[in-house]
Specification:
With 216 residues, the protein is of the alpha+beta class. It contains six helices and eight strands, in the order ββαββββββααααα. An eight-stranded antiparallel sheet has the order 1-2-8-7-6-5-4-3. Helix 5 runs antiparallel to helix 6. The protein starts with 12 loop residues before the first strand and ends in a 9-residue tail after the last helix.
Length: 216
């Protein structure tokens, strides 16, 4: 039976929190999703360097506390905490920007709930332009890939992963995810109008093909 990929956007619970780190205001995007597997298997999918590329992209480096890692074509950072099979925390460093990622796994009946919290010191202008969906939608896509791998046991087709956001069902997935992040931002205190306008700009950023971008 084919999986309704658009519907999987509704499997994620989204939350936005306002926080502080070292006295500087932060925004925390929190995504939760339950997976139909046990805690040990989900932990392995998230931390086994040989298995991560089956649903995400390759991650190289020293995946131990104090070690540095690198996500292929994306961020790198330092492993700050690791408490198998319950949680790990890493810095998320992309160019000069440093943020913090924490993942927790909790048994939930015959499955496991994953909670991902991404905390960043956010430029107010950037937040106003895109809101939490700028980072949140990317994690939604990753959590979808993880779900496909967990449920089938097979690797996710890299071509499907690369082209999905610009496909018709991918655009709808991104739209639903971005709207969910806008709703979470409103609950945290953002004004509804600007929050949903930011969500639309996030949708455009994720779903516009390079050849569709005007020159200049």
């Amino acid at each position: 039976m084919a999986i309704d990929l658009v519907a999987t956007a509704g499997l994620v619970t989204r939350e936005v929190r306002s926080g502080t780190r070292d006295g500087v205001p932060t925004k925390i995007a929190v995504a939760r999703r339950r997976y139909p597997t046990d805690q040990a298997d989900l932990w392995d999918a998230l931390t086994n360097g040989d298995r991560i590329p089956r649903w995400f992209v390759p991650v190289s480096g020293d995946l131990r506390v104090g070690g540095r890692y690198q996500v292929e074509g994306n961020a790198g950072g330092v492993v700050e905490r690791c408490e198998e099979p319950e949680m790990f925390a890493v810095t998320w460093e992309f160019g000069p920007m440093v943020s913090w990622l924490e993942v927790r796994l909790t048994p939930a009946g015959d499955g496991t709930t994953l909670e991902l919290a991404h905390e960043a010191q956010v430029d107010p202008d950037l937040w106003g332009q895109f809101g939490p969906g700028a980072v949140g939608v990317g994690w939604d896509l990753g959590l979808m890939g993880l779900g496909l791998h967990i449920e089938s046991g097979a690797p996710v087709d890299p071509e499907l992963a690369a082209t999905f956001p610009t496909s018709p069902e991918g655009v709808e997935f991104v739209r639903r995810a971005a709207a969910g992040w806008a709703e979470a931002a409103v609950i945290d205190g953002d004004e509804p109008g600007p929050a949903y306008e930011a969500a639309e700009r996030t949708v455009a950023a994720y779903t516009t093909q390079p050849e569709d971008v005007p020159e200049g």
